[in-house]
Design brief:
- By secondary structure, the chain is an alpha/beta fold.
- It has twelve helices and five strands.
- α10 crosses α11.
- It is elongated.
């Protein structure tokens, strides 16, 4: 399955570097110094940072596809358990299975598992810190590929930074990325490229939000016809309302 992602050149380069590193991770250690040989581990850990809808999860799918590796998206709710020791056991089983299948593990919103440790003044906080320590150690020793995503780098425990091999920042899309997103989401039902350029110029939404708008507008009309501009404006208004913001004045004019 092919994934079309549109991102700034630096993000694309970082993803390609990650893929190249992953391809070579088994032979990476060959003829390196004795200090590195003593800590030989083919595992690879990456953190994708960016606002919701900027393409972090899609990029993880892109990486897995490029590596021809199965992608396991971790259900954090299924791992976490109120009983002491059960969460560690669940994660241990998960990592063992992923290593055996050479699967890429994706931890979405990873700060819920790898969040900052506290001063541990209460027993619950102490257990949370112990769990974080266990997770950091297991991920560091895992021989496979792990990708974590977060909306904010500051939410990830600072002790995990040195354990990360790659950190990729996903900014909100610029004009060129937005234009490509509108073109590709609207496809053959686009009302016209001039409209796509107008939307890209004045609509500062993420890729995920643009997707929501196009699907919302498509649901109003005939699937055999181009998407109606008025329907697009209505879908845009609803998406901006979800953000607690007003539709840009330039876009309001489109529906008149």
């Amino acid at each position: 399955k092919q994934y079309a992602i549109f991102c700034p050149p630096l993000v694309e380069q970082n993803l390609n570097d990650l893929i190249a590193r992953a391809h070579n991770r088994e032979s990476l250690w060959k003829d390196l110094g004795v200090t590195l040989q003593a800590s030989h581990n083919p595992g690879l850990r990456a953190l994708f940072v960016g606002d919701s809808g900027t393409g972090k999860t899609l990029a993880a799918s892109y990486v897995a596809t490029a590596l021809n590796a199965p992608l396991y998206r971790v259900d954090l709710a299924a791992i976490m358990n109120k009983y002491v020791g059960e969460s560690e056991k669940n994660l241990g089983i998960l990592l063992d299975l992923a290593a055996a299948a050479d699967a890429l593990l994706l931890f979405d919103e990873a700060d819920s598992l790898f969040g900052r440790r506290t001063d541990a003044k209460q027993s619950g906080e102490r257990y949370a810190n112990m769990l974080t320590n266990f997770l950091l150690t297991r991920i560091e020793n895992h021989p496979g590929i792990v990708i974590l995503t977060t909306n904010s780098r500051e939410r990830i425990d600072s002790g995990f930074n040195r354990r990360l091999d790659v950190i990729v920042d996903f900014p909100m899309p610029g004009f060129q990325e937005r234009l490509q997103l509108w073109r590709n989401h609207l496809g053959k039902r686009s009302p016209g490229d001039n409209l796509c350029k107008t939307l890209a110029s004045y609509c500062d939404l993420s890729g995920g939000q643009i997707r929501n708008v196009v699907l919302g507008a498509a649901g109003f009309g005939n699937s055999e016809q181009p998407i109606n501009i008025q329907h697009l404006v209505v879908a845009l208004q609803r998406e901006y309302q979800k953000l607690g913001r007003n539709l840009p004045a330039q876009l309001e004019q489109l529906g008149r």
